[in-house]
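Exercise (ungraded).
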Amino acid sequence: MSNDTMLTRRGLFMKLAILFNGLVGIALAVPIVQFLLSAITRGRANAYLAWVPLGPVSEFPEGETRLATFRNPYVTPTDGKTADTACWVRRMEGDQFQVFAINCMHLGCPVRWFPQSGLFMCPCHGGVYYRDGSRASGPPEHGLVEYPWKVQKDQIIIQAGELPTPGAPIAALDRRTPPCA
Amino acid sequence: MRMIARIGEWFDRRLQLAAPIREAAEHPVPRNAASWFYVFGSAALTVFLLQLATGILLALTYVPSAAEAWNSLQELNHDVTLGWFIRALHGWGSNFMVAIVLIHMMQVFLFGAYKFPRELTWIVGVFLLLMTLGMAFTGQVMRFDQDAYWGLGIGASIVSRVPIAGPALLRLMLGGPIIAGPTLSRFFALHVFVIPGSLIAFVCLHVLMVLRLGINEWPMPGRLVKRATYESEYHELTKRDGAPFVPYAVWKDMFFAAFILLAVTACAVYFGPFGPSGRPDPTIIETVPKPDYFFLWLYALLALLPPSLETPAVLIGPVVVIIGLLLLPFLSGEGEKSWRRRPIAVLSVLLIAIALGTFTRMAEFAPWSPHMNAWSGDPVPERMLHGTTALERQGALVFQVKQCRNCHALGGSGGERGPALDTVAVRLTEDQFIRQVIQGGGNMPTYGKNLSPPETTALVAFLQTLHPPGQAPARDASREVVIEEGPEKLTGKGPGARR
């Protein structure tokens, strides 16, 4: 209709209005996206991998594997019981331990320990692990995740706080040297 | 009556909706499309409305907090008047909705209704299917019990396997480092705001296109769709052999919708609400998590795929399927509509239906899962111990105590992860038994470290008794020769060697 190269007053205001809306949109979008991504950008902050106590060493007899529970170091007010986590503690000799995440490395179901046969079995798809956490059979591709542990003032404490998954084992695991390497 | 008419007139002068509504109601449909096969779309819409209504009712009591959700479900089930019934309606409604949407899709596919000019209606429909499945999964999370908790764990494990972005996506999904309060809150937002909002928008778009483009005519073998002529042909058809949607076709939709609502109600009254199962406490590990029925096929697939194929199949498979569904109207947008002349289409539907059905059926038995309590709960059948020696009985004891039974059935009870052992002695010799037990293999763990030599001897003695009465156990013929005539006979060396 009108000449394209001609900039009319209304056309200018229209363009300015679009620009103004664009600027306001960006000004709003930045904090909104920041909010949405906060679960990622918060990073593995402080409490995610704090040391948590599992109880006195004397509760774990030598040569046995026992279930221990701990409260996740990072909690929110609405977590309820879901922040309580279980793990398997294997005491070998003296102060030598292995602490396994409860989650099967196939799809995260809770594995159960059978002392008689010395195996961990998963109820979901039949993943089986030996007493040292290494893979025995079934669909899992890796052994169980081990939490870093140490003994402090006669307490066994572990570094936990993240859900171990097959694709993203906990950060602490990256620093761990594999036991049989 | 005149009063009502005048009030109606007052509103319509301001709303101006009567004319477009009448137009939509009376739009002509081909007479042969007023069929009982064409009722599934409106049935899906009806169940969706039921879900909206019951969902809002549930939200009056439900608390989307990981600490409180389970308690509020208990309150709905036991304290709130008819709370159980509303929960049951919502739960059964979701099952019906998934089923009806799938049937609707199958019908549309077999009747060629996705072809020109209805490609976009199909594409929007594919998104509606995905949203329906999204509602089903997030809905299972809302029922925040053990199954929901470990179901989230399975979801987290799958998401974490995405290359590179896995850990970030995992955080985004969980809202934190573990499955906890923020996880339930964000699934609540998805289930109650995000997905239903998009569903409503897409349903409107879907229905609008059905009204604008007209309902698919009954496919006649040999009547081909051509881009150039289809629209005028369709117009001609509705003119020559059409009838107004209301009342000519709508009564079938209405009957079927009422029938479906009645069926949902009957299931709700008769079977009651789903769960909740145990409290979502991750320290309770005596649990056997299982997904709801619409995801059972996936649960089975994850057990049966070879481990190396699993991650690619789970991550790439859905993408391929979705792209395939979206591309379908572009790959075959013209041509034959009738299923009578589309054997590949019919076979594909049958194949998919049989595969999904088989996987779902298998997941109900889950033969791949060890029976966690078989070793202590299922005794060795008495007949297998008749006339056995003390050593063999000791072996039967080892068999139970070492949890062999969790994976191996005897007399029809016990796990099915490994083969049933009722007649295993016919298949394996003593040496093969010892090797298998100690070294494992073929998906069996090695028991070498967990069996003392006497235990192994006893166990193998018991296993060798497991053969049918009239059939001898397997034996290693070469070994007998060795025992009778000495090793020289076989090796061909020494004085007694065979010539």
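Further reading is listed at the end of the chapter. For now, observe: Confidence is low (pLDDT under 50) at residues 171-181 of chain A. The domain at 46-175 of chain A is CATH 2.102.10.10 (Rieske Iron-sulfur Protein).
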